[in-house]
Amino acid sequence: MFSEHKNSYLQLHCSGMNPRIINRSVDLARCQLTVDSGDFEPPWHRLVSEQPCIPVQNVDVLRRPLGFGRWAMPKLRRELHHPDEIIVIAALTTFIDLLKNPERGAEAITLRVPDRITDLLNHENPVIRERACMVLAVLAELADGKEAIVRHPKLLYYLALTLDDVENAVRIKAATVVEVVSDFWKAAEELVSFGYVPIILDCVSKDCEEIVVILLRALNNLMNTCDGMEEMFDYEAFDILMCISQSPSVPLKVAALKCLATLFNTAEGRDLAYRCDVLIYLNKLLHSEILELYQAALEAIMFATVKSAARIKALKVVHLSDRLVCLLHDYYNPPTQMHCLQCLVHLCEHPMLRKHVNENYYDEIATLYVGSDKELQILKDRLLSVINWQPEQDLKKIIRLKSAGPKLVPFLKTVAIYFVIYIPFGQPSITAATLKCLPIISLMIFVVLYTRTLEQRHKWFGRKILLGLAFSCIGDACLVWSHSRTFFELGMLAFGIGHTFYIQAFGFKPLNMKLGLALYLTSIGSVVYMMPGLNGMLVYAVPIYSVAITTMFWRAASRLNKREPFSWSKLFTVLGAFSFLMSDGILAFDRFKFPVPHSQALIMTTYYAAQLGIALSVVDPRDSSKIRKA
C-alpha cells in the first residue's frame, strides 16, 4: 500500500491519479534519488515506519512539512475561505503542521493568518471550528502569536463564544488556546480587560472535567495580573473554587487548589481563608497519599498561614505540624520540602506550636538532609532560629544595649577632655600620657563591668578584649615619647600583643579565606610602599605588626556573615577594626613617607573610635563563644 502521510495534500486534490505516480513525480521534481518501497507496483515489503513521528529512512524530516516552498503560506491563506469545506479543513490541518516551525509562525503572523481564521471560529461546521482553534493554539506558542491574537477584538469575541460551544472537542481546543495565550503576562492583561475572568468562571461551573482543568490553569494565569485578581474577588471566585476543590476528581482538586494558593497570596484572600476556616479542610487534603494533591494543599497552606490570626486557628487543626514534619523527609521532592519548611516557619511563630515542634521534632529538623540546595538550607536555618528563639533573650539584649549608654559616659568625657586640652605629639609629658590613656582606661572599666554580668561561658571573650585594651593602653603611653626609637618600638610591640588578644577573642571560624587573601595582598603592597623609609629594627617590626593588625581586621570582618544572625555589636566591631587600620595607616604615612595635615586629630579620632567599636563587642558575645567552641 502507498503511504497516506506522504504528499497528502496533492493526493487529496488529485484523487483520480495513482498515488504512487504522484509520489514518484514529487521525488523527481525534488531531484530526490531515494527509493521508497511503497511507490512501486506491486509495493515492496516495508521495513520501516511511515508515521510522521517516526521518519522514514533516508528522508529529511525537516522538508516533509514544508511543501511548495515560499508559496505554501499565501496559497493556504487563500484557501481558508474556499467554498469547499474539505479544502478549508485540509488548509487548516496543513497550517497546524507548518506553524510548528517558528519561521512559518512568523510568516503566518506577517500574512495576518489569525485575522483570516477569526470568521472560522463561528463556522457552522464543528470540524472547522475545532481545527481553527488548533491553529490558534499552535500559533500562540510564539510570543508574537499571543500578541497577534489578543490585539484582535473580534477574534477574542468569537473565541469566548467558542468556550460555550455545543461540541466538547471544540470547547477543549478553545480552552487550550486561552490557556496558552494567558501564559504571557501582557496577553493575560488583555484577556482580563476583555472580560475573560467572568467568562471562565461561568464555564468552570458547568463544563466537563477535562475542560475545567484547562480553564482553571488559564484562570490561574489571569490571577497573576492586578486587574485579574480584583475581578476574582468581585465575582466571588473563592466560593466557586472551594466548590470545585471538593470534587471527587483529583485533577480538579489540584487545579482548584493551585488557584486558591494564588488567591491566598493576597491580603484579601488570606482574610477569606481565615474567616472560612480553610485550614481544617486543607489539612484533610494534606494527609492524602496522592503526591499532586498534598503538594497543592501544602502550597495553599503556606500562603494561608501568613496571617498571624491564622496561626492561632492552626492550634485547633489536629496533627498539622506533625504531617508537615513527616513530609519534610520527602528527599526526592525539594519543592515539597521547601513548602513544608516555610509552613513550619509561619506556624512556629506561635508560642504553643513552637514549643510543640521544639520538644518533639527539634533533633529531626536539625539533622534534616537538604543536600547542596542553598534555598533549602536557608529555610532550614531560619526554621531552627525561630524554634530556638526565646523572648527573654531579646529582652535581655535590649536591656544590655540600653545600659551601655551610661557606662560609656566616662569614655566620652575623657575623649572630650583630651581634645580640649590637646597636647601636641611633640610635647611628651606624664600629663600628655595620662590624658591619652584615660579614654582607654574608661573602656577597660566598661568591659570589666559588662564581663561581670555575663554568663561564665561568655566571660572568656570579655577577658581577651580587656587584655587587648590593657596592652593598647601601654602602647599609648609609650608612643607619647615616639621621638625615641626605643619607646616607639616598645609601643609597636604592646599594640601587637593587644592585637593577638583581639584575634583570639574573634576566633577563626568562619574562616573566609577570600577576604583574608585580599587583605594580606593589600597589606603587602602598603609595606612595600613604606619600606624605603624604614631602617634598623623597623624593617622587621613594621611587616610583623602589619600582619598582626591585618589579621585582627580579617577576623573581625569575618564575624559579620550571612550564615549567622546579624547583631549591632558585630557591626561595631568591624567598624572599630577598620578604624584601627585607618589610624595606624595615617600614623605610618606621617612618620615614614610625608607629613599628613592635622595628623594628630585624625589619628586619635580614628583610634578612639576603633577601641570603642571593639569594646562594644562584649555587649553580645554569644556568637563569639560559639566560635570558640567550634
Average predicted confidence as pLDDT: 85
Largest sheet: none
- Helix fraction, binned, reads over 70%
General form: elongated
Structure summary, number of beta strands: 0
Rg on CA atoms, Å: 39 Å
The fraction of residues in strands falls at under 5%
Walk me through what this model shows.
By secondary structure, the chain is mostly helical. It has a domain at 404-629. The protein contains 34 helices and no strands. The chain has helices spanning 8-13, 19-29, 72-79, 85-98, 102-110, 113-118, 126-139, 143-150, 153-162, 168-182, 185-194, 196-204, 209-223, 226-234, 237-245, 250-263, 267-275, 278-286, 291-304, 308-314, 320-327, 334-347, 351-366, 374-388, 391-407, 409-421, 430-453, 459-479, 485-506, 513-530, 538-558, 568-592, 599-615, 622-629. The longest helix has 25 residues, at 568-592.
For this entry, give a set of tags.
single chain, 630 residues, mainly alpha, 34 helices, 0% strand, elongated, disordered C terminus
Strand-helix topology:
Blueprint: H1 8-13, H2 19-29, H3 72-79, H4 85-98, H5 102-110, H6 113-118, H7 126-139, H8 143-150, H9 153-162, H10 168-182, H11 185-194, H12 196-204, H13 209-223, H14 226-234, H15 237-245, H16 250-263, H17 267-275, H18 278-286, H19 291-304, H20 308-314, H21 320-327, H22 334-347, H23 351-366, H24 374-388, H25 391-407, H26 409-421, H27 430-453, H28 459-479, H29 485-506, H30 513-530, H31 538-558, H32 568-592, H33 599-615, H34 622-629
Helix pairs in contact: 3-4, 4-7, 7-10, 10-13, 12-13, 13-16, 15-16, 16-19, 18-19, 19-22, 21-22, 22-24, 23-24, 26-27, 27-28, 27-33, 28-29, 29-31, 30-31, 31-32, 32-33
